[in-house]
Amino acid sequence: MAQTTDNAAIAETLKALEIISENAGTSTGLQTSNSGTLITSVSPVDGKDIASVTQTTPEEYEQVVQTAAEAFKVWRVMPAPQRGEVVRQFNEELRRLKEPLGKLVSYEMGKSYQEGLGEVQEMIDICDFAVGLSRQLHGLTMHSERPGHRMYEQYHPLGIVGIISAFNFPVAVWSWNTALAWVCGDVCIWKPSEKTPLTGIACQKIAARVFAKNNLPEGISCLINGDYTVGELMTKDERVPLVSATGSTRMGKQVAQTVGARLGKSLLELGGNNAIIVTPDSDLKMTVIGAVFGAVGTAGQRCTSTRRLIIHESIYDKVKNAIVDAYGQLRIGNPLDENNHVGPVIDKDAVKNYQNALTKVVEEGGKILVEGGVLEGEGYESGCYVKPAIAEAENHYEIVQHETFAPVLYLMKYSGEVENAIELQNGVRQGLSSAIMTNNLREAERFLSVAGSDCGIANVNIGTSGAEIGGAFGGEKETGGGRESGSDAWKVYMRRQTNTINYTTELPLAQGIKFDL
Ligand code: NAD
Q: Keywords assigned by UniProt (predicted)?
Protein backbone atom coordinates (compact mmCIF):
# COMPACT_ATOMS: atom_id res chain seq x y z
CA MET A 1 0.00 0.00 0.00
CA ALA A 2 2.58 2.52 1.05
CA GLN A 3 5.52 3.51 -1.06
CA THR A 4 9.10 3.31 0.04
CA THR A 5 12.03 5.61 -0.37
CA ASP A 6 15.59 4.38 -0.63
CA ASN A 7 16.76 7.72 0.58
CA ALA A 8 17.91 6.97 4.10
CA ALA A 9 18.28 10.66 4.99
CA ILE A 10 14.67 11.33 4.08
CA ALA A 11 13.53 8.29 6.03
CA GLU A 12 15.43 9.68 9.05
CA THR A 13 13.64 13.03 8.54
CA LEU A 14 10.25 11.32 8.44
CA LYS A 15 11.14 9.47 11.65
CA ALA A 16 12.24 12.65 13.41
CA LEU A 17 8.86 14.13 12.51
CA GLU A 18 7.16 10.94 13.74
CA ILE A 19 5.51 10.45 10.36
CA ILE A 20 6.95 6.94 10.37
CA SER A 21 8.02 4.88 13.35
CA GLU A 22 11.57 4.61 14.63
CA ASN A 23 11.98 1.01 13.43
CA ALA A 24 10.58 1.53 9.96
CA GLY A 25 13.94 1.13 8.22
CA THR A 26 13.81 3.15 5.04
CA SER A 27 10.16 2.39 4.36
CA THR A 28 7.85 5.34 4.80
CA GLY A 29 4.97 2.91 5.53
CA LEU A 30 2.32 5.59 5.69
CA GLN A 31 -1.38 5.13 5.37
CA THR A 32 -3.85 7.46 7.05
CA SER A 33 -7.00 5.34 6.78
CA ASN A 34 -8.30 2.17 5.18
CA SER A 35 -10.57 3.81 2.65
CA GLY A 36 -10.31 6.48 0.02
CA THR A 37 -8.22 7.02 -3.06
CA LEU A 38 -4.46 7.10 -2.67
CA ILE A 39 -2.51 10.30 -3.23
CA THR A 40 1.17 9.75 -3.82
CA SER A 41 3.59 12.47 -2.83
CA VAL A 42 6.30 12.66 -5.48
CA SER A 43 9.44 14.66 -4.82
CA PRO A 44 10.30 17.08 -7.64
CA VAL A 45 13.90 16.88 -6.37
CA ASP A 46 14.55 13.34 -7.65
CA GLY A 47 11.19 12.26 -9.07
CA LYS A 48 10.81 9.53 -6.43
CA ASP A 49 7.59 8.59 -4.70
CA ILE A 50 7.99 9.52 -1.04
CA ALA A 51 4.80 8.01 0.37
CA SER A 52 1.10 7.65 -0.29
CA VAL A 53 -1.71 8.95 1.85
CA THR A 54 -5.42 8.31 1.49
CA GLN A 55 -7.84 10.94 0.31
CA THR A 56 -10.44 11.83 2.95
CA THR A 57 -13.86 10.37 2.11
CA PRO A 58 -17.11 12.33 2.65
CA GLU A 59 -17.91 9.99 5.59
CA GLU A 60 -14.53 10.68 7.18
CA TYR A 61 -15.01 14.40 6.58
CA GLU A 62 -18.30 14.20 8.47
CA GLN A 63 -16.51 12.67 11.47
CA VAL A 64 -13.82 15.32 11.31
CA VAL A 65 -16.37 18.15 11.38
CA GLN A 66 -18.12 16.61 14.35
CA THR A 67 -14.82 16.16 16.19
CA ALA A 68 -13.92 19.79 15.45
CA ALA A 69 -17.33 21.05 16.59
CA GLU A 70 -17.00 19.17 19.89
CA ALA A 71 -13.46 20.48 20.40
CA PHE A 72 -14.68 24.03 19.80
CA LYS A 73 -16.95 23.79 22.85
CA VAL A 74 -13.90 23.12 25.04
CA TRP A 75 -11.47 25.48 23.34
CA ARG A 76 -13.69 28.57 23.09
CA VAL A 77 -14.17 28.81 26.88
CA MET A 78 -10.48 28.53 27.68
CA PRO A 79 -9.10 32.02 28.43
CA ALA A 80 -7.24 33.39 25.42
CA PRO A 81 -3.89 33.76 27.26
CA GLN A 82 -4.11 30.07 28.17
CA ARG A 83 -4.71 29.26 24.51
CA GLY A 84 -1.64 31.39 23.85
CA GLU A 85 0.32 29.20 26.25
CA VAL A 86 -0.60 26.13 24.16
CA VAL A 87 0.54 27.94 21.02
CA ARG A 88 3.78 28.75 22.84
CA GLN A 89 4.34 25.05 23.49
CA PHE A 90 3.54 24.26 19.86
CA ASN A 91 6.16 26.82 18.93
CA GLU A 92 8.73 25.09 21.18
CA GLU A 93 8.15 21.93 19.16
CA LEU A 94 8.59 23.83 15.91
CA ARG A 95 11.91 25.19 17.18
CA ARG A 96 13.01 21.70 18.12
CA LEU A 97 11.98 20.24 14.77
CA LYS A 98 12.97 23.15 12.55
CA GLU A 99 15.65 21.23 10.66
CA PRO A 100 13.71 18.04 9.80
CA LEU A 101 10.57 19.98 8.95
CA GLY A 102 12.57 22.43 6.80
CA LYS A 103 14.21 19.47 5.07
CA LEU A 104 10.88 17.77 4.35
CA VAL A 105 9.47 21.05 2.96
CA SER A 106 12.51 21.26 0.70
CA TYR A 107 12.30 17.64 -0.44
CA GLU A 108 8.55 17.45 -0.95
CA MET A 109 8.07 20.90 -2.52
CA GLY A 110 11.47 21.52 -4.10
CA LYS A 111 12.45 24.87 -2.57
CA SER A 112 16.00 25.30 -1.29
CA TYR A 113 16.86 23.96 2.16
CA GLN A 114 17.50 27.54 3.32
CA GLU A 115 14.04 28.54 2.15
CA GLY A 116 12.58 25.43 3.80
CA LEU A 117 14.17 26.51 7.08
CA GLY A 118 12.93 30.05 6.43
CA GLU A 119 9.42 28.74 6.03
CA VAL A 120 9.57 27.00 9.42
CA GLN A 121 11.04 30.19 10.89
CA GLU A 122 7.97 32.00 9.59
CA MET A 123 5.84 29.51 11.52
CA ILE A 124 7.89 30.21 14.64
CA ASP A 125 7.53 33.98 14.15
CA ILE A 126 3.76 33.88 13.69
CA CYS A 127 3.41 31.71 16.80
CA ASP A 128 5.43 34.27 18.80
CA PHE A 129 3.14 36.96 17.43
CA ALA A 130 0.04 34.91 18.32
CA VAL A 131 1.20 34.33 21.89
CA GLY A 132 1.43 38.10 22.43
CA LEU A 133 -1.85 38.59 20.62
CA SER A 134 -3.57 36.19 23.00
CA ARG A 135 -3.42 38.99 25.62
CA GLN A 136 -4.50 41.73 23.22
CA LEU A 137 -7.77 40.64 21.60
CA HIS A 138 -9.32 43.99 22.29
CA GLY A 139 -12.51 45.78 21.32
CA LEU A 140 -13.45 49.45 21.65
CA THR A 141 -15.69 51.15 24.17
CA MET A 142 -17.93 53.97 22.97
CA HIS A 143 -19.92 56.68 24.71
CA SER A 144 -23.61 55.89 24.68
CA GLU A 145 -26.07 58.65 23.73
CA ARG A 146 -28.32 57.48 26.58
CA PRO A 147 -27.60 58.37 30.23
CA GLY A 148 -26.59 55.51 32.50
CA HIS A 149 -25.68 53.28 29.58
CA ARG A 150 -22.41 51.73 28.60
CA MET A 151 -21.55 50.53 25.13
CA TYR A 152 -18.64 48.41 24.01
CA GLU A 153 -17.68 45.78 21.49
CA GLN A 154 -16.10 42.43 22.02
CA TYR A 155 -14.77 39.70 19.76
CA HIS A 156 -15.79 36.07 19.98
CA PRO A 157 -14.40 33.12 18.02
CA LEU A 158 -16.19 32.09 14.84
CA GLY A 159 -16.06 28.30 15.28
CA ILE A 160 -14.53 26.06 12.63
CA VAL A 161 -12.05 27.74 10.30
CA GLY A 162 -11.43 25.82 7.07
CA ILE A 163 -7.95 26.26 5.65
CA ILE A 164 -7.15 25.37 2.03
CA SER A 165 -3.50 25.87 1.14
CA ALA A 166 -1.26 25.88 -1.93
CA PHE A 167 1.77 23.71 -2.59
CA ASN A 168 4.34 26.50 -2.64
CA PHE A 169 4.17 27.42 1.05
CA PRO A 170 3.09 24.02 2.30
CA VAL A 171 3.40 24.77 6.03
CA ALA A 172 3.78 28.53 6.63
CA VAL A 173 0.37 29.50 5.26
CA TRP A 174 -1.33 26.96 7.52
CA SER A 175 0.45 28.39 10.55
CA TRP A 176 -0.38 32.00 9.59
CA ASN A 177 -4.01 31.00 9.78
CA THR A 178 -3.97 28.50 12.54
CA ALA A 179 -1.78 30.31 15.10
CA LEU A 180 -4.11 33.33 14.97
CA ALA A 181 -7.30 31.27 14.75
CA TRP A 182 -6.27 29.20 17.77
CA VAL A 183 -5.59 32.12 20.07
CA CYS A 184 -8.87 33.63 18.86
CA GLY A 185 -10.60 30.45 20.13
CA ASP A 186 -11.38 28.84 16.77
CA VAL A 187 -10.66 25.27 15.76
CA CYS A 188 -9.19 24.54 12.33
CA ILE A 189 -9.68 21.96 9.61
CA TRP A 190 -6.82 22.03 7.12
CA LYS A 191 -6.73 20.71 3.59
CA PRO A 192 -3.15 21.05 2.36
CA SER A 193 -2.29 20.89 -1.32
CA GLU A 194 -2.58 17.39 -2.76
CA LYS A 195 0.96 17.96 -4.04
CA THR A 196 2.43 18.28 -0.53
CA PRO A 197 0.43 16.06 1.83
CA LEU A 198 3.37 14.86 3.94
CA THR A 199 4.34 18.23 5.36
CA GLY A 200 0.66 18.50 6.35
CA ILE A 201 0.86 15.23 8.24
CA ALA A 202 4.08 16.34 9.94
CA CYS A 203 2.41 19.53 11.21
CA GLN A 204 -0.70 17.69 12.34
CA LYS A 205 1.43 15.24 14.34
CA ILE A 206 3.21 18.10 16.08
CA ALA A 207 -0.04 19.88 16.94
CA ALA A 208 -1.74 16.67 18.09
CA ARG A 209 1.11 15.91 20.53
CA VAL A 210 0.90 19.36 22.07
CA PHE A 211 -2.89 19.26 22.47
CA ALA A 212 -2.71 15.77 23.99
CA LYS A 213 -0.04 16.89 26.46
CA ASN A 214 -2.41 19.63 27.61
CA ASN A 215 -5.38 17.23 27.85
CA LEU A 216 -7.08 19.11 25.07
CA PRO A 217 -9.07 17.51 22.25
CA GLU A 218 -7.14 16.83 19.07
CA GLY A 219 -10.11 18.23 17.11
CA ILE A 220 -8.74 21.73 17.72
CA SER A 221 -6.46 20.91 14.81
CA CYS A 222 -7.85 18.64 12.08
CA LEU A 223 -6.36 17.49 8.81
CA ILE A 224 -8.15 16.30 5.70
CA ASN A 225 -6.35 15.21 2.55
CA GLY A 226 -7.23 15.32 -1.09
CA ASP A 227 -7.85 17.41 -4.15
CA TYR A 228 -10.40 20.14 -4.85
CA THR A 229 -13.31 17.76 -4.27
CA VAL A 230 -12.28 17.48 -0.62
CA GLY A 231 -11.84 21.26 -0.47
CA GLU A 232 -15.39 21.61 -1.75
CA LEU A 233 -16.72 19.61 1.18
CA MET A 234 -15.63 22.56 3.33
CA THR A 235 -16.57 25.40 1.01
CA LYS A 236 -20.15 24.04 0.79
CA ASP A 237 -20.43 23.29 4.51
CA GLU A 238 -22.49 25.78 6.52
CA ARG A 239 -20.80 24.55 9.70
CA VAL A 240 -17.57 26.19 8.48
CA PRO A 241 -18.17 29.92 8.91
CA LEU A 242 -14.79 30.99 7.49
CA VAL A 243 -12.83 29.42 4.64
CA SER A 244 -9.31 30.76 4.26
CA ALA A 245 -8.10 29.72 0.81
CA THR A 246 -4.66 30.25 -0.69
CA GLY A 247 -3.98 29.37 -4.30
CA SER A 248 -4.67 30.40 -7.86
CA THR A 249 -7.17 33.07 -8.85
CA ARG A 250 -9.09 30.38 -10.72
CA MET A 251 -9.53 28.47 -7.45
CA GLY A 252 -10.35 31.64 -5.50
CA LYS A 253 -13.19 32.55 -7.83
CA GLN A 254 -14.76 29.13 -7.32
CA VAL A 255 -14.28 29.20 -3.55
CA ALA A 256 -15.67 32.75 -3.25
CA GLN A 257 -18.81 31.80 -5.19
CA THR A 258 -19.46 28.61 -3.26
CA VAL A 259 -18.84 30.16 0.16
CA GLY A 260 -20.68 33.35 -0.85
CA ALA A 261 -23.73 31.35 -1.99
CA ARG A 262 -24.23 30.28 1.64
CA LEU A 263 -23.20 33.74 2.94
CA GLY A 264 -20.12 32.35 4.63
CA LYS A 265 -16.91 34.35 4.92
CA SER A 266 -13.91 33.70 2.75
CA LEU A 267 -10.37 34.96 3.15
CA LEU A 268 -8.66 34.77 -0.23
CA GLU A 269 -4.91 34.84 -0.90
CA LEU A 270 -4.55 34.36 -4.64
CA GLY A 271 -2.18 34.88 -7.53
CA GLY A 272 0.17 37.82 -8.05
CA ASN A 273 1.85 39.48 -11.02
CA ASN A 274 4.45 41.50 -9.22
CA ALA A 275 6.71 44.18 -10.63
CA ILE A 276 9.78 46.12 -9.56
CA ILE A 277 10.10 49.65 -10.91
CA VAL A 278 13.73 50.60 -11.47
CA THR A 279 14.25 54.36 -11.67
CA PRO A 280 17.31 56.32 -12.81
CA ASP A 281 18.13 56.91 -9.11
CA SER A 282 18.24 53.23 -8.21
CA ASP A 283 21.19 51.41 -6.67
CA LEU A 284 22.26 48.92 -9.34
CA LYS A 285 23.69 46.30 -6.96
CA MET A 286 20.57 46.25 -4.77
CA THR A 287 18.38 46.14 -7.86
CA VAL A 288 20.16 43.12 -9.27
CA ILE A 289 20.06 41.15 -6.01
CA GLY A 290 16.41 42.07 -5.35
CA ALA A 291 15.27 41.29 -8.89
CA VAL A 292 17.20 38.05 -9.31
CA PHE A 293 16.19 36.63 -5.92
CA GLY A 294 12.62 37.75 -6.58
CA ALA A 295 12.48 36.10 -9.99
CA VAL A 296 14.36 32.82 -9.44
CA GLY A 297 13.92 32.19 -5.68
CA THR A 298 11.67 29.16 -5.07
CA ALA A 299 12.06 28.64 -8.85
CA GLY A 300 9.67 31.54 -9.44
CA GLN A 301 6.92 29.80 -7.47
CA ARG A 302 6.16 32.42 -4.84
CA CYS A 303 2.96 34.37 -4.98
CA THR A 304 5.27 37.38 -4.53
CA SER A 305 7.84 36.31 -7.16
CA THR A 306 9.06 39.13 -9.38
CA ARG A 307 7.47 38.65 -12.81
CA ARG A 308 8.07 42.08 -14.37
CA LEU A 309 10.92 44.60 -14.24
CA ILE A 310 9.87 48.07 -15.37
CA ILE A 311 13.09 49.94 -16.07
CA HIS A 312 13.62 53.59 -17.00
CA GLU A 313 14.83 53.83 -20.60
CA SER A 314 17.89 55.88 -19.60
CA ILE A 315 19.35 52.98 -17.59
CA TYR A 316 17.63 50.10 -19.38
CA ASP A 317 20.70 48.61 -21.07
CA LYS A 318 22.86 48.88 -17.97
CA VAL A 319 20.29 47.13 -15.75
CA LYS A 320 19.45 44.55 -18.41
CA ASN A 321 23.11 43.61 -18.90
CA ALA A 322 23.75 43.33 -15.17
CA ILE A 323 20.76 41.05 -14.69
CA VAL A 324 21.57 38.89 -17.69
CA ASP A 325 25.14 38.54 -16.30
CA ALA A 326 23.80 37.55 -12.90
CA TYR A 327 21.63 34.84 -14.49
CA GLY A 328 24.81 33.41 -16.00
CA GLN A 329 26.07 32.68 -12.47
CA LEU A 330 23.00 30.79 -11.27
CA ARG A 331 23.51 27.19 -10.22
CA ILE A 332 20.50 24.96 -10.80
CA GLY A 333 20.21 21.64 -9.02
CA ASN A 334 19.20 19.68 -5.95
CA PRO A 335 17.75 22.24 -3.52
CA LEU A 336 19.09 20.31 -0.53
CA ASP A 337 22.59 21.14 -1.77
CA GLU A 338 23.21 24.62 -0.42
CA ASN A 339 25.52 25.53 -3.30
CA ASN A 340 22.55 25.65 -5.67
CA HIS A 341 20.47 28.79 -6.16
CA VAL A 342 17.52 27.27 -8.04
CA GLY A 343 15.72 23.98 -7.47
CA PRO A 344 13.00 22.27 -9.48
CA VAL A 345 9.46 23.42 -10.22
CA ILE A 346 6.77 21.33 -8.58
CA ASP A 347 5.85 18.94 -11.41
CA LYS A 348 5.73 18.32 -15.15
CA ASP A 349 2.57 20.43 -15.54
CA ALA A 350 4.51 23.38 -14.17
CA VAL A 351 7.25 22.64 -16.72
CA LYS A 352 4.64 22.73 -19.50
CA ASN A 353 3.28 26.08 -18.29
CA TYR A 354 6.83 27.46 -18.26
CA GLN A 355 7.52 26.24 -21.80
CA ASN A 356 4.19 27.58 -22.99
CA ALA A 357 4.97 31.03 -21.54
CA LEU A 358 8.29 31.18 -23.39
CA THR A 359 6.67 30.17 -26.69
CA LYS A 360 3.80 32.57 -26.20
CA VAL A 361 5.91 35.62 -25.35
CA VAL A 362 7.84 35.18 -28.61
CA GLU A 363 4.61 34.70 -30.58
CA GLU A 364 3.32 37.96 -29.14
CA GLY A 365 6.43 39.83 -30.25
CA GLY A 366 8.75 39.46 -27.26
CA LYS A 367 12.47 38.77 -27.46
CA ILE A 368 14.26 36.14 -25.39
CA LEU A 369 17.27 37.57 -23.53
CA VAL A 370 18.16 34.51 -21.46
CA GLU A 371 17.21 31.20 -23.07
CA GLY A 372 15.11 28.78 -21.08
CA GLY A 373 15.05 25.01 -21.33
CA VAL A 374 14.50 21.84 -19.36
CA LEU A 375 17.63 20.31 -17.87
CA GLU A 376 18.39 16.67 -18.47
CA GLY A 377 20.92 14.13 -17.28
CA GLU A 378 22.40 13.26 -13.92
CA GLY A 379 20.74 15.07 -11.04
CA TYR A 380 17.86 16.24 -13.22
CA GLU A 381 16.03 12.89 -13.52
CA SER A 382 12.77 14.28 -12.16
CA GLY A 383 12.38 16.32 -15.34
CA CYS A 384 11.34 19.35 -13.23
CA TYR A 385 14.52 21.45 -13.42
CA VAL A 386 14.16 24.42 -15.75
CA LYS A 387 16.52 27.28 -16.61
CA PRO A 388 15.38 30.66 -15.32
CA ALA A 389 14.61 32.71 -18.43
CA ILE A 390 14.29 36.41 -19.27
CA ALA A 391 12.31 37.96 -22.11
CA GLU A 392 11.82 41.51 -23.27
CA ALA A 393 8.08 42.04 -23.46
CA GLU A 394 5.28 44.56 -23.35
CA ASN A 395 2.87 44.86 -20.51
CA HIS A 396 -0.25 44.34 -22.60
CA TYR A 397 0.81 40.90 -23.92
CA GLU A 398 -1.71 38.30 -22.83
CA ILE A 399 1.05 36.09 -21.38
CA VAL A 400 2.51 38.99 -19.38
CA GLN A 401 -0.93 39.71 -17.94
CA HIS A 402 -1.07 36.12 -16.75
CA GLU A 403 0.73 34.66 -13.70
CA THR A 404 3.07 31.90 -14.90
CA PHE A 405 4.21 30.03 -11.80
CA ALA A 406 7.80 29.46 -12.97
CA PRO A 407 11.08 31.40 -13.29
CA VAL A 408 10.21 33.62 -16.26
CA LEU A 409 11.02 37.32 -15.92
CA TYR A 410 9.74 40.02 -18.31
CA LEU A 411 11.74 43.22 -18.85
CA MET A 412 10.07 46.37 -20.12
CA LYS A 413 10.95 50.06 -20.47
CA TYR A 414 9.27 53.19 -19.28
CA SER A 415 10.06 56.76 -20.19
CA GLY A 416 9.51 60.10 -18.48
CA GLU A 417 8.17 60.31 -14.94
CA VAL A 418 7.68 57.53 -12.40
CA GLU A 419 3.89 57.81 -12.89
CA ASN A 420 4.33 56.13 -16.27
CA ALA A 421 6.00 53.17 -14.58
CA ILE A 422 3.30 53.05 -11.90
CA GLU A 423 0.65 52.90 -14.62
CA LEU A 424 2.36 49.86 -16.15
CA GLN A 425 2.85 48.26 -12.75
CA ASN A 426 -0.86 48.68 -11.92
CA GLY A 427 -1.93 47.64 -15.41
CA VAL A 428 -2.54 43.97 -14.59
CA ARG A 429 -5.49 42.16 -13.04
CA GLN A 430 -3.58 41.06 -9.93
CA GLY A 431 -2.56 43.31 -7.02
CA LEU A 432 -0.30 41.49 -4.59
CA SER A 433 3.24 42.83 -4.29
CA SER A 434 5.12 45.75 -5.84
CA ALA A 435 8.42 47.52 -5.35
CA ILE A 436 10.41 50.54 -6.42
CA MET A 437 14.17 50.82 -6.49
CA THR A 438 15.09 54.46 -6.02
CA ASN A 439 17.09 56.77 -3.81
CA ASN A 440 14.83 59.64 -4.82
CA LEU A 441 12.50 60.42 -1.91
CA ARG A 442 9.95 62.15 -4.11
CA GLU A 443 9.66 59.18 -6.45
CA ALA A 444 9.39 56.77 -3.53
CA GLU A 445 6.61 58.78 -1.91
CA ARG A 446 4.70 59.12 -5.18
CA PHE A 447 4.89 55.34 -5.57
CA LEU A 448 3.42 54.94 -2.06
CA SER A 449 0.82 57.71 -2.42
CA VAL A 450 -2.90 57.28 -3.11
CA ALA A 451 -2.11 57.60 -6.82
CA GLY A 452 0.74 55.10 -6.54
CA SER A 453 0.87 51.31 -6.35
CA ASP A 454 -2.52 49.59 -6.11
CA CYS A 455 -1.09 46.47 -4.47
CA GLY A 456 -1.49 45.10 -0.96
CA ILE A 457 2.29 45.26 -0.56
CA ALA A 458 4.42 48.18 -1.78
CA ASN A 459 8.14 48.19 -0.93
CA VAL A 460 10.92 50.72 -1.37
CA ASN A 461 14.43 49.42 -2.04
CA ILE A 462 13.37 45.86 -1.30
CA GLY A 463 12.22 43.34 -3.91
CA THR A 464 8.67 42.04 -4.18
CA SER A 465 9.21 38.71 -2.49
CA GLY A 466 9.71 37.86 1.16
CA ALA A 467 7.42 39.44 3.72
CA GLU A 468 7.71 39.68 7.49
CA ILE A 469 4.87 38.30 9.57
CA GLY A 470 4.34 41.54 11.53
CA GLY A 471 2.48 43.24 8.69
CA ALA A 472 -0.85 42.17 7.25
CA PHE A 473 -0.21 40.09 4.13
CA GLY A 474 -2.40 39.98 1.04
CA GLY A 475 -3.39 41.76 -2.12
CA GLU A 476 -6.10 43.52 -4.05
CA LYS A 477 -8.01 42.92 -7.29
CA GLU A 478 -7.71 39.33 -8.51
CA THR A 479 -5.37 38.54 -5.60
CA GLY A 480 -8.57 38.32 -3.59
CA GLY A 481 -8.48 41.14 -1.00
CA GLY A 482 -7.71 38.93 2.01
CA ARG A 483 -5.26 39.81 4.76
CA GLU A 484 -3.45 37.25 6.88
CA SER A 485 -0.64 37.20 9.38
CA GLY A 486 0.23 40.35 11.37
CA SER A 487 -1.29 43.74 12.19
CA ASP A 488 -5.03 43.37 12.90
CA ALA A 489 -5.57 40.43 10.50
CA TRP A 490 -6.80 38.46 13.55
CA LYS A 491 -10.16 40.21 13.35
CA VAL A 492 -11.23 38.11 10.38
CA TYR A 493 -11.09 35.00 12.58
CA MET A 494 -13.59 36.45 15.07
CA ARG A 495 -17.12 37.73 15.14
CA ARG A 496 -17.70 41.21 16.50
CA GLN A 497 -20.47 41.86 19.00
CA THR A 498 -21.68 45.27 20.17
CA ASN A 499 -23.01 45.30 23.73
CA THR A 500 -25.08 48.06 25.33
CA ILE A 501 -25.74 47.85 29.04
CA ASN A 502 -28.33 49.95 30.88
CA TYR A 503 -27.53 50.45 34.55
CA THR A 504 -30.52 52.77 35.34
CA THR A 505 -34.14 52.06 36.22
CA GLU A 506 -35.39 53.85 33.09
CA LEU A 507 -35.62 52.50 29.54
CA PRO A 508 -34.81 55.42 27.22
CA LEU A 509 -34.82 54.50 23.53
CA ALA A 510 -32.12 55.42 21.06
CA GLN A 511 -32.71 58.43 18.79
CA GLY A 512 -35.00 59.88 21.53
CA ILE A 513 -37.96 57.78 20.35
CA LYS A 514 -40.91 57.94 22.79
CA PHE A 515 -42.81 54.75 23.58
CA ASP A 516 -44.85 55.13 26.77
CA LEU A 517 -47.23 52.51 28.06
P1 NAD B 1 -4.25 25.82 -6.78
O2 NAD B 1 -5.26 26.89 -6.93
O3 NAD B 1 -4.12 24.83 -7.86
O4 NAD B 1 -4.58 24.97 -5.44
C5 NAD B 1 -4.57 25.56 -4.17
C6 NAD B 1 -5.43 24.74 -3.22
O7 NAD B 1 -6.81 24.90 -3.58
C8 NAD B 1 -5.16 23.24 -3.25
O9 NAD B 1 -5.22 22.76 -1.93
C10 NAD B 1 -6.32 22.71 -4.09
O11 NAD B 1 -6.64 21.37 -3.83
C12 NAD B 1 -7.45 23.64 -3.67
N13 NAD B 1 -8.55 23.81 -4.62
C14 NAD B 1 -8.47 23.99 -5.96
N15 NAD B 1 -9.70 24.21 -6.47
C16 NAD B 1 -10.57 24.19 -5.44
C17 NAD B 1 -11.98 24.33 -5.33
N18 NAD B 1 -12.75 24.56 -6.39
N19 NAD B 1 -12.54 24.25 -4.10
C20 NAD B 1 -11.80 24.02 -3.00
N21 NAD B 1 -10.45 23.85 -3.05
C22 NAD B 1 -9.85 23.93 -4.25
O23 NAD B 1 -2.87 26.55 -6.47
P24 NAD B 1 -1.39 25.94 -6.36
O25 NAD B 1 -0.91 25.55 -7.71
O26 NAD B 1 -1.31 24.93 -5.26
O27 NAD B 1 -0.57 27.23 -5.84
C28 NAD B 1 -0.11 28.24 -6.67
C29 NAD B 1 -1.01 29.45 -6.63
O30 NAD B 1 -1.20 29.90 -5.29
C31 NAD B 1 -0.40 30.65 -7.35
O32 NAD B 1 -1.40 31.28 -8.10
C33 NAD B 1 0.10 31.53 -6.22
O34 NAD B 1 0.23 32.89 -6.56
C35 NAD B 1 -0.97 31.30 -5.20
N36 NAD B 1 -0.52 31.65 -3.86
C37 NAD B 1 -0.98 32.82 -3.31
C38 NAD B 1 -0.53 33.21 -2.07
C39 NAD B 1 -0.98 34.49 -1.44
O40 NAD B 1 -0.80 34.65 -0.25
N41 NAD B 1 -1.57 35.42 -2.19
C42 NAD B 1 0.37 32.39 -1.35
C43 NAD B 1 0.80 31.21 -1.94
C44 NAD B 1 0.34 30.84 -3.19
A: NAD, Oxidoreductase
